[in-house]
Amino acid sequence: MCGGSLEILPCSRVGHVFRKRHPYEFPEGNALTYIKNTRRAAEVWMDEYKQYYYAARPSAQGKAFGSIADRLALKRKLNCNSFRWYLENVYPELKIPEQEVVYSLLKQDGLCLESHDTDSLGLAECKTTPSIPASQKWTLIEPQIRQHDQCLAITAFTAGSKVRLEPCNAKESRQKWKPRGPALQHMISGLCLDSQPPSGPPVIAQCRPQVASQSWEPQLVT
């Protein structure tokens, strides 16, 4: 995260010999020392992902862990990357614990964004009975707009480019979106999701505040 590297050397061996007893003391006890040290690591390095540490170690909540001001200052001085960067660039294989999935409809003038297949998206009548079809359910987990394991992606970085679904990839810049008022803006191109023309697939276009074709209303599916 701070510019170093970890090397794997062929034929190297790593071993650990456990002593019968520790050659040092734990003034607060073994368990509390472990909680204190791991909580300090989580608070300094894990950013918003420290919630998973506390979920796994609920006993750490409220336990004193001392000042980490000097550690945070060192982190800033070294211009260290975020833990999100680490997950996306160093250890993308690490599976993040599943959060409760919340589905939404993406509505526009009474119609809903719907997928027909990966290359065919469009507005269609919102279907709520007998149940909402999977083709109209979306999960908005910034920076991705997901439908199961498929993500909304632009096909090019220029205005007028079509939008389609493709397998989600946290490193793929074409899949990164953010809310901009009622609009959904592609983070890299700066263009917004636009339903025009109504009979065709959505495209990305210059963001125009208050234009109906760029106004999307997420509605939670309950």
Automatic annotation (TrEMBL):
InterPro entries, sorted: Nucleotide-diphossugar_trans, Ricin_B-like_lectins, Ricin_B_lectin
Pfam families, alphabetized: Ricin_B_lectin (PF00652)
Tree of life domain: Eukaryota
Transferase is among the record's keywords: yes
UniProt keyword Disulfide bond present: yes
GO cellular component: Golgi apparatus
Gene3D superfamilies listed in its UniProt record: 2.80.10.50, Spore Coat Polysaccharide Biosynthesis Protein SpsA, Chain A
Ricin B lectin domain mapped to chain residues: 99-219
A single MF term (Gene Ontology): carbohydrate binding
GO biological process: protein O-linked glycosylation
Keywords from the UniProt entry: Disulfide bond, Lectin, Transferase
PANTHER family, per database record: N-ACETYLGALACTOSAMINYLTRANSFERASE (PTHR11675), POLYPEPTIDE N-ACETYLGALACTOSAMINYLTRANSFERASE 16 (PTHR11675:SF3)
Protein name, as recorded: Polypeptide N-acetylgalactosaminyltransferase 16
